[in-house]
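Researcher: Please generate the 3D structure of the following complex. Treat every line as part of one assembly.
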Amino acid sequence: MDEPVSYYRNSAFIFWILKIKNVGFKEFCFKKSLWLFHFGGASCNNCDIEILDCLTPRYDLERFGMLLIGSIRHADVLLVNGSINQRDKSRLLELYEQAPKPIVVVAIGACGCTGGIFAEGDTFAGPVDKLIPVDAYIPGCPPKPEAILAGIVKLLNK
Amino acid sequence: MVKKTLIPIGPYHPLQEEPELFKLYCEGEIVKDIKWETGYNHRGIEKLSEKKTYDQSFFLVERICGICSTSHPFAFANAIEEIGNIEITNRAKYIRSIIGELERIHSHLLWVGLAGHFLGYNTVFMWAWKYREPVLDLFEMISGNRNSYAMFKVGGVRRDIENNKISQITPVLDLVKKKTDMLVGAVMDDPVLHARTKGVGVLTKQDIIDYAAVGPTARASGIDVDIRRDDPYAAYPLVNWKVITAEKGDVFAKAEVRLLEMYESISIIEQCLEGLKKEKEGDINVKVKDIPAGWGTGRAEAPRGEVFHYVLSDGSNSPARHKIRAPSYTNIATFKKSCIGQTISDATISLAAVDPCYCCTERMAVAYDSKTGDKILNGNELIALSAKKTQNIKNQF
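Model: Done. Output below.
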């Protein structure tokens, strides 16, 4: 069993639940209903649209309890797509700082994974995994919604 | 005196799928001024294009924007074919037009959905995006990918639409037509949507001329402009279709133009498919030896308006200069007219009404010194830089 993270130490309630379920804090948090926050860097918009597409009737991400939310402070998963340019870099780092830990970072698309076709660009500030730790990569230009779903469900079962 | 409030939207706002910062200066509930900041999406594409060969550049320009990922290669191909005086085969023309029009359908459906979402009509959002999927399936069948199709090359197209595939395409078009009827009914006859969109975000004819807006934004205000008709390219002169315009210039008119344009697109595709049957299968390429020195411009009508590409060739196999102007570049400036004087709740839909696409727009950024706040390059310096570059290119000839 994992030790609970220090800033949750006062919460007797969480201790109680963990004791009953006999799971670690991290496993408990990531068991169900992941909330996603979407950060679109300097992308071509394709991955952003495919992520939105996951919410629409054909794919329906919400049946797994996942929700695209507006604030990083409520998020369990940070989706990053697009190459990161000089101007996005500081903002991505700041978002990662603000995120409640532990947080799962998923790099989506060729640009998110490596920089893709824009890696040679003048404004490129490094692929996502050079800036923040990345837990999962979903390659493709753009990855199909099925691939995004498969990646995130794989994370759920991890 | 009423206190002015600054309401920032963005840069990473859940409403927008792209990074972009809007600053709304409000007095009470009324928007008094608007400013916007770009640069979050700048990737240095024009410079990158100079490092790549013409064939590689097609994959790059396709990734300027994911939604209009045909119109950029379209304009780029037009520019290069103007330099080399290349005449492509009729079959390639038809295939290019089919891809372009399919893209217009899926882009307009996407916009209708997002507009519905902004107005709080999530049903419209879900519907429109659901019936956009069959169009993406068609793309997957034709090109192998849902979004970036990689269909274009100098002198033709990469993949053929075989005649036996045509029978699979027409039922999808019929389905989309039926569902468009439904969407038109839902949007045009709904009294709440009328109340929310009529008289909101009005752009007069003069505003459009002042700000040089293009595409459906201009056509909704009664400016009859369409590159497909004014500067004919691909198969558009070979088929019958008409330019849709509206007079009012408000958000409702823009929705009307886009929805009715989808019918025209379907009709163009049907005629192109008929045309395909008459042409010889596999006749999609002309052999291109090399691109001579010179310059060419290419224009194409994207779902959002006119895309303009300028290519300067020095006779080598990569462009010496590549300049891109996307439709949103001029359309975004109309926010100054459409948003000011509106309430904040109407500002969102006024912003969305021109269907802005920031990844198209991000072409150049001026650098500021973070400590002193000084511009590192001012306008004159940039012009001097540009002149210097032109001089360098001239010396090479």
